[in-house]
Amino acid sequence: SPLTSRRDKPRILAVANQKGGVGKTTTAINLGTALAAVGERVLIIDLDPQGNASTGLGLGRAERKVTTYDVLLDGASLESAECVTAVPRLSIAPAGQDLAGAEIELIEVENRHYCLDKAIKDFAKARPDITYIMIDCPPSLSLLTINAMAAADAVVIPLQCEFFALEGLSQILRTIDKVKQRINTRLELQGIILTMYDGRNNLSQQVEADVREHMGDKVYRTAIPRNVRISEAPSHGKPALLYDLKCAGSQAYIKLASEVIQRERAA
Ligand code: ADP
Ligand code: MG
């Protein structure tokens, strides 16, 4: 289809923010689903020990035979971890609780920044049909997130419009710069997503104005509204787009996906 990307390599996006609860996992799942819906072939890599992306896509603990821990630290291939989901063209490499120990175990590993990068390069050779890989990062800027940034073409930052948002933003931007200088020269900022946005709230509006002033076009035009259907969907093991396609949150993620695709085509 002319809609889908034709490249020899998948585009690799890390969904990152050191703060928890800002919408990283929700974005990985729903942006991934929206990309799959327009014909992209998407793999989500769950790099958070909490495993919320895996649970949110309906994968129980017992179904997670090979996990991202095994990929990072035991030489398992990403293909062997890959699980299908209820969404056509969307698969996931799940996380298990053992990933919590990976942070510390990685310190001892030679090439510790590049464990995920190597696994993805092997995966891309074996699976040339995959057009997007989305990495759901943990709420820290530790070795797991550095592994994601080392492997990625670009970072997508979900940002909640609250009081300390800009301080948190400058911290992750500094980390992206450092990774770009020392570990992965092709790393870019794809964009900043305003999440759980409430247009009636003055603080939301003020923070939005500040972020747009500082970051300009790096902020996607589409903001994701705070929407109860989005928060209900994971407990049904489904992306919001399958749970309630018509809700404002799902519609926003569909719009966001078209902005992401436009930027990826320009890249
Ligand atoms: P993170 O991965 O950054 O920790 P999550 O994506 O898990 O954040 O989101 C944190 C919580 O907020 C979850 O309970 C999620 O369902 C909820 N949430 C995320 N985005 C929205 C939204 N747009 N509207 C309402 N609730 C949301
Ligand atoms: Mg998360």
Automatic annotation (TrEMBL):
InterPro entries in the record: AAA_dom (IPR025669), DNA_Partitioning_ATPase (IPR050678), P-loop_NTPase (IPR027417)
Domain AAA as annotated: residue spans: 11-188
Protein name, per record: ParA family protein
Species of the source: Aquisalinus luteolus
